[in-house]
Specification:
The protein is α+β, with helices and mostly antiparallel strands.
């Protein structure tokens, strides 16, 4: 008796699922038109239509859409504000202080005094909140309209924006260490001379 009930239940469930599938198959016979999201009829177009033929056909990206991040490294002053405000810590920045003061200017005229030895964004962690783009004083970090970045290796979702070679970064660190050591030695010598003059 139990077996008969289970069989009837299984057949009923299968029939209901098949009925729903057949209803959707014959009801959905129009191709979706691609219109702007601002169009009054945008959401009505989803009724009784097949899905769009992606990638040949794509829905328009809204102007305020938040998708892949991009960094114009020449405009970056390596202030680290984007990394500090990121709620998921997906931005990794390493800066090196310049030994010669100002090393250049951004497109908006801001002075650059730090080298970007590392500027990585892990898009696998990114939650697309856009906070980093808001706090950036030079607007070098922006959200693009690119959203389809399929990769086979998770490491490929970490984008490296720094254009400094590891050897060059090591040399800049060495020069900074030498400069700081020289300043510390001069300060110690001045303090020792002052102490010697007092006694």
């Amino acid at each position: 008796m139990k077996l008969i009930k289970q069989t009837i239940k299984g057949l009923t469930t299968a029939w209901m699922g098949l009925t729903l599938t057949m209803r959707a198959l014959f009801a959905s016979n129009k191709k979706r038109k691609v219109v702007s999201i601002t169009d009054n009829n945008y959401f009505k177009l989803q009724e009784n239509t097949n899905t769009i033929q992606y990638p040949k056909q794509a829905l328009p990206v809204p102007e305020v859409g938040r998708y892949q991040l991009d960094v114009e490294i020449d405009d970056c002053i390596v202030c680290d504000l984007c990394a500090k405000i990121c709620p998921v810590n997906c931005i990794d920045i390493e800066s090196i202080k310049s030994t010669q003061g100002v090393i250049g200017e951004t497109s908006d005229g801001s002075k650059k005094m730090l080298y970007a030895a590392k500027f990585d964004i892990d898009m696998a962690k990114c939650m697309y909140c856009g906070l980093c783009t808001i706090v950036c004083p030079t607007e070098c970090i922006t959200m693009t309209n690119q959203y389809d970045r399929t990769v086979f290796d998770l490491a490929q979702l970490t984008y490296e924006f720094s254009d400094m070679a590891p050897e060059e970064a090591a040399e800049k660190r060495r020069l900074l260490d030498e400069q700081q050591a020289a300043k510390a030695a001069a300060k110690a010598a001045a303090l020792k001379a002052k102490e010697g003059g007092v006694s």
